[in-house]
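Q: Here's a chain of 91 amino acids. Please give me its 3D structure as tokens.
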Amino acid sequence: MLNAVACVTNLCDQAYPVNIESDQNTTVKEKEFLKISDMIEKLGVTRTQFWRMRKAGEVPPPVIRNPQMWLASQVKEFYEQRVAKEDVGTL
């Protein structure tokens, strides 16, 4: 099984910033997205292992379907929650 702590620390190292303007055009939010290749690289798994993990619910669903991309902050949060659940289970 993959070490969830390592995933949290590695996933957001390389992300792609995308500028999104707000409705009022007064502030600009920056969101970072991870492509499939980034997820595979950061998790340290093969493409096949990645899809198996995804099917098993060990990877969050993408926020953009085509091309599939994940919001870096949501992925980090997903794995932080998994680490917290694993820590509670070991007590």
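Q: Can you summarize the key feature?
A: The two ends are 19 Å apart (CA to CA).
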